[in-house]
Write a structure and sequence with these properties.
This protein has 123 residues and is an all-alpha fold. It has a single domain, classed as Orthogonal Bundle (Helix Hairpins). It has 2 helices and no strands. α1 runs antiparallel to α2. The radius of gyration is 27 Å and the shape is rod-shaped. The model has no long low-confidence stretch (mean pLDDT 88).
């Protein structure tokens, strides 16, 4: 019975290593997503500010402002498309990390139960 408990403990250590790797991968992906979201939010704010400007503009200034707003809108659209493309992989990484962490926790619990059972059988 001690062999089974030791084997479960070894499996738990391996699962813990894999879970840590998946959590680090998810953390890096999460940071990347936050940066992309921040960039999209900044573009959204810049576009909103260009439309809320109250200053009177000459025809030339209006053309420049319109061109800048168009560029900002295209950039925002591209950023939102990038986020939409990254989202499925982000969710998959989140699920993988949660699954590996859960697996390690279950193996830890099973190992502890097995050790407790083997210790109670001795006495």
């Amino acid at each position: 019975m001690v062999g089974k408990a030791d084997m479960l403990a070894q499996l738990e250590r391996l699962a813990r290593i894999k879970a840590e790797r998946e959590l680090k991968r998810f953390a890096a992906f999460s940071l990347h997503m936050k940066q992309a979201q921040g960039q999209a939010d900044a573009m959204r704010t810049a576009l909103d500010q260009s439309y809320r400007s109250q200053a009177p503009l000459s025809v030339a200034e209006a053309r420049i402002a319109s061109a800048q707003a168009g560029r900002s809108a295209r950039d925002l659209h591209q950023a939102e498309q990038n986020l939409a493309r990254m989202l499925p992989r982000f969710e998959a990484a989140r699920l993988d990390a949660a699954r590996e962490f859960g697996r390690a926790e279950v193996l830890l619990s099973l190992s502890a139960q097995s050790r407790a059972k083997s210790n109670s059988e001795r006495y």
